[in-house]
Design goal:
This protein is mainly α. The protein folds into 2 domains: 30 residues; 84 residues, no CATH class. The protein contains 5 helices and no strands. The protein starts with 6 loop residues before the first helix and ends in a 13-residue tail after the last helix.
């Protein structure tokens, strides 16, 4: 014994079928992926900041701008810096040196060897 669909249920099923057929005709597929909360919050802020109505619009614009780049630029942006590429600014080096000297002053028996005095 099969249940008969009500008019509303039948209309909803027909609507979903039409939407699915139209998406297939246009080559649209749903994509799902996991995203860290921090990135999701940053994307939500960008959506609001740039006046997008839906997150889908932003993702499509990002994809189109990515595709429009030349292959060398895409490759450059996909490079991940490794540890030897870490950059120490002069400000950070100065802060480290000052903190090190303060630590040595706290313990006066420790030896100080400066790079230019190395044996």
């Amino acid at each position: 014994m099969t249940e008969q669909k009500t008019g509303v249920a039948k209309h909803s099923a027909d609507y979903r079928a039409r939407q699915k057929a139209q998406a297939k005709k246009l080559g649209i597929e749903k994509v799902f992926f996991n995203m860290p909360e921090g990135i999701k919050a940053a994307m939500a802020a960008e959506i609001e900041r740039h006046g997008y109505d839906q997150v889908q619009e932003l993702w499509q614009d990002l994809a189109l701008s990515w595709i429009a780049q030349d292959p060398e630029e895409r490759a450059r942006r996909l490079e991940r810096p490794d540890a030897p590429a870490f950059y120490i600014s002069s400000k950070l080096a100065r802060q480290f040196n000052e903190a090190s000297m303060a630590e040595l002053r706290r313990y006066p028996g420790d030896e100080q060897v400066f790079p230019d005095q190395a044996v």
